[in-house]
């Protein structure tokens, strides 16, 4: 998703339009109690292509920030995780095998390094 589309989604959540039906663009609630917005087209009105979206997801990297306590002090470990490995990495912390607690996840393309 582009930054413009991300801002649109955030604005929709901010407005928090409660919908009677879960149609595209309305704020809905799933059976687990989490709110979501379903988007069926991109900012140009074109429908999403599943294969393209999955291919692009593998091109992303994620910076995962993990809060780690070292005695009385805390530090943040920043991990660079390929998109294909993100769920595997998160599962380490869900299973209690990782040291610390995930506090933030940011997405970026490899060419966005500063």
Strand order of the largest sheet: 4-3-5
Order of helices and strands: HEEHEEHE
The separation of the N and C termini measures: 21 Å
- Look at the helices and sheets and give the structural class: alpha+beta
Write the layout of secondary structure elements.
Layout lengths: L2 H13 L11 E3 L5 E3 L12 H10 L1 E10 L2 E10 L3 H9 L6 E8 L6
Antiparallel strand pairs: 1-2, 3-4, 3-5
What keywords describe this structure?
3-stranded antiparallel β-sheet; single chain; alpha+beta; two-stranded antiparallel ribbon
Structure in words:
The protein is α+β, with helices and mostly antiparallel strands. The chain is built from 3 helices and 5 strands. It has helices at residues 3-15, 50-59, 86-94; strands at 27-29, 35-37, 61-70, 73-82, 101-108. Strand 1 and strand 2 form a beta hairpin. The radius of gyration is 17 Å and the shape is globular. The protein starts with a helix and ends in a 6-residue tail after the last strand.
